[in-house]
Amino acid sequence: MTNKMWGGRFKEGPSAIMAEINASINFDQRLYAQDIAGSKAHAAMLAKQGIITKSDAADIGKGLDQILNEIEQGKFKFSAALEDIHLNVESRLKELIGDAAGRLHTARSRNDQAVTDMRLYVRDCVDALDAALQELQVALASKAEAHAATLMPGFTHLQSAQPVTFGHHLLAYVEMLGRDRARLADARKRVNENALGAAALAGTSYPIDRHMTSKDLGFSGPMRNSMDAVSARDYILEVLSACTISSIHLSRLAEEIVIWCSSQFRFVKLSDKFTTGSSIMPQKRNPDAAELIRAKPGRILGAFTALAMVMKGLPMAYAKDMQEDKELTFDALDNFALAIAAMAGMVRDMEPQVATLKAAANADYSTATDLADWLVQVLKMPFREAHHVTGRVVALAEKKSCTLSELRLEDMQAIHGGITKDVYKRLTVEASVASRTSFGGTAPANVRREARRWLRASKGK
Ligand code: ARG
Questions:
Q1: Choosing from 157, 263, 279, 401, which is the catalytic residue?
Q2: How far is the CA of 84 from the centre of ligand 1 (A)?
Q3: Are 264 and 277 in contact, with CB atoms under 8 Å apart?
């Protein structure tokens, strides 16, 4: 059987393989709400412009509402022979309202229709992702406020470097997510442009009003070139690229959580809700959610790479290659949303192990920089020399297997005679973090203020 929607010039229907490679209904049916919204806006505009009658437009509107209902109730029968969501909806409309259905496709093509649906869909996803990222920021900032003064080792090269606070560490991620949200917000501007009315590629001879459909569908305005409108997919690439970067941020935190809850670290405890057991080793608590979040950038960047390759070298305007944008985008955005939600759940429940963190903060001569700073500030020593003297003090502590603050004053004085007992005030981890009051520094007062600022800002929205 030839295709009932476009088979006029064909004698034979497609082979089974042709139908299989061509059909997108299995995955583009998730665009049903956007497809129906786009069609309603189009029909209303056609009527307003006198291109179809008001009574046909009313029938079309009613029929489309019924179809929306049928789909939402699970009563709609999707047909692979009808290829995609657009033809499935239109064909059902014909069953419901008869010939008026055939007027809906005046002055448009599936090329502009498919892009319109997808732009509406991606716009909704971007908004949902933004809200989810904000929730994650709130989870992080709340935990940061509660642990503004909880000591932990700060690392460089994954070697203990200087003491920081747990809150400060978490707020670093709040900052990253803030930039991720800004990137998505910027990409959204270019998602939110109206392709409808570009028709197949050249525009149309009907007196359509693309400003009206733009307004109806919440787009910022009509795209200015019909060939660009049907064939641009950079709006998706941008969103995928912003999601890739953000998922990389999540993966860094995920990896830290994996490390932190290992028995070698024991820095945090995850709740039962966000850990799994082993089928063979009864004692185990595995951070599977964190591991899966760590893995997601592969998948999301994979979608970006795949779509970039689909688009590379494609001549204008529309080509069926572009249908491949959908599964990639759906998979990437679904997985990113899931990763954000799982991370927010994990962070909310996570319990930093305060005593273990403090002991680790104390280890490895983490206040050596504070000793050097004391030598500079009190003895007016040049920093390079102070660094050298401190190195010798550290070597001595190492030899005696003690911390810097456990060294005897005489032992330190043997290395540099100017050292007085005043130095001990600076050698504790508490004093170290409290002294880091520079803008953006780890002092608990700073951290508390920053966490509160974030929490206030997120309530303001
Ligand atoms: N399902 C198609 C897509 O997503 C719709 C456009 C089809 N256009 C066409 N001329 N066959 O790209």
A1: 157
A2: 8
A3: no
Four-CA torsion 361, 362, 365, 368, nearest 10 degrees: 80
Distance CA 170, CA 175 (A): 9
| Ligand 1 center from residue 114 Cα (angstroms) | 6
Reported as a pLDDT band with limits 50, 70 and 90, residue 461 is: low
Which residue, chain included where needed, has tokens 């996803």? 125
Asked which of 320-329, 352-361, 364-373 is least confident by mean pLDDT, the reply is 364-373
For 17, the 3-state DSSP assignment is helix
- Using CA atoms, how far apart are residues 345 and 315, in angstroms rounded to an integer? 45
Residue 178's Cβ-count burial label (10 Å; 0-12, 13-18, 19+) is middle
- CB-based contact 303:4 (threshold 8 Å): no
DSSP state of 279: S
Select which of 147, 241, 278, 366 is catalytic: 278
For residues 234 and 19, the model is more confident at 234
Evaluate if residue 76 carries a pLDDT over 60: yes
Per the structure block, which two tokens stand in for 94? 């014909």
Query: Sign of the CA dihedral 411, 416, 418, 423?
Result: negative
